Amino acid sequence: MENKKELRGWLDDLNLDHPLVIAGPCSAETEEQVLRIAHELKDTDVNYYRAGIWKPRTRPGMFEGVGALGLKWLQKVKAETGMKTATEVANAAHVKLALEHDVDLLWIGARSTVSPFIVQEIADALNGTDKIVLVKNPVNPDLALWLGAIERLATANIKKLGVIHRGFSTYEKTKYRNNPEWQLAIELQTKFPDLPIINDPSHITGKRDMIFDVSQTALDLNFDGLMIETHFDPDNAWSDASQQVTPKVLIQIMKDLKIKKETDPEADYNKNLDNLRAQIDIVDNQIIDLLGKRMKAADSIGVLKKQKNVAVLQSKRWNEILGKMVLEGESKGLSEEFVLKMFKAIHQESINHQEKIING
């Protein structure tokens, strides 16, 4: 890939005093809807107005976008508000039409990023373009696949590149629509610290009331910007209604977010400290989630023991666990004393859970 200054060049040229903001409706529905939202966002922190023209959907029969007609609406947005425009492209035909309608920023969606063939087709169609091209992470947590898409675009002589972190699909239900898997985004930042990275809290959360918290975490992790879906009547949106916010709410979110200004002499120290603390917060939440899952398994064991009238404490099994975990902990740099204390506490909580079940 290009050297680090060239990677950030397009973003630095914007000379922003706040994170980059890409906002607008999940889907362009009507010309009136597109223009109304744009006018409500034109004098805000929004830098690029987004609208989905082609909508790749999980299952057939769902609204899949208005198609090329919507590109003319984006042209009107630019003419009437002066805002730069952005949309998703999923094949060479989309690229051709988007370039013909002078869309300023294009992104490749999560479903497209999973296919090197699709990415290569898009890269060939964009070869040498001066447009900004962002790549959403693939739906599955595969860092190599994500980076591979960027490399294909870079090889096609596309200079203005960046990535969008929108979370990852998981069969297991969580509080998120798409699990953020923050560690993958952090690893990408570590490998390419000057590759602009945008967070998409709308797709991560799937719920508008969680967008602020995820946005704040992203900024604490030194993300460069946010892509937030915005609609004047989100409850009646034609797609992804529950994850869109009104322009008024978006403006308030941007006001409430704590954004570090690099003005004091210890700015680098504070920035790095906040980043590391944000990483710890993420891991702490993961630990709590895992402990919750462990106790659910313990509850199920309690039910089985009650059915068979088996004692809660099984000393042989417990000693096997302790010995194995001490060795595993040592391989991770954890002291035997710490591992023993931690697992004794976990074991006691499991016993408490099972005794409640057995005792009714």
UniProtKB/TrEMBL annotation:
<keyword id="KW-0175">Coiled coil</keyword>
<protein>
    <recommendedName>
        <fullName>chorismate mutase</fullName>
        <ecNumber>5.4.99.5</ecNumber>
    </recommendedName>
</protein>
<dbReference type="Pfam" id="PF00793">
    <property type="entry name" value="DAHP_synth_1"/>
</dbReference>
<dbReference type="InterPro" id="IPR013785">
    <property type="entry name" value="Aldolase_TIM"/>
</dbReference>
<dbReference type="InterPro" id="IPR002701">
    <property type="entry name" value="CM_II_prokaryot"/>
</dbReference>
<feature type="domain" description="Chorismate mutase">
    <location>
        <begin position="267"/>
        <end position="358"/>
    </location>
</feature>
<dbReference type="GO" id="GO:0046417">
    <property type="term" value="P:chorismate metabolic process"/>
</dbReference>
<feature type="coiled-coil region">
    <location>
        <begin position="266"/>
        <end position="293"/>
    </location>
</feature>
<dbReference type="InterPro" id="IPR036263">
    <property type="entry name" value="Chorismate_II_sf"/>
</dbReference>
<dbReference type="GO" id="GO:0016740">
    <property type="term" value="F:transferase activity"/>
</dbReference>
<dbReference type="Pfam" id="PF01817">
    <property type="entry name" value="CM_2"/>
</dbReference>
<dbReference type="InterPro" id="IPR036979">
    <property type="entry name" value="CM_dom_sf"/>
</dbReference>
<dbReference type="InterPro" id="IPR052899">
    <property type="entry name" value="Class-I_DAHP_synthase"/>
</dbReference>
<dbReference type="GO" id="GO:0004106">
    <property type="term" value="F:chorismate mutase activity"/>
</dbReference>
<keyword id="KW-0808">Transferase</keyword>
<dbReference type="InterPro" id="IPR006218">
    <property type="entry name" value="DAHP1/KDSA"/>
</dbReference>
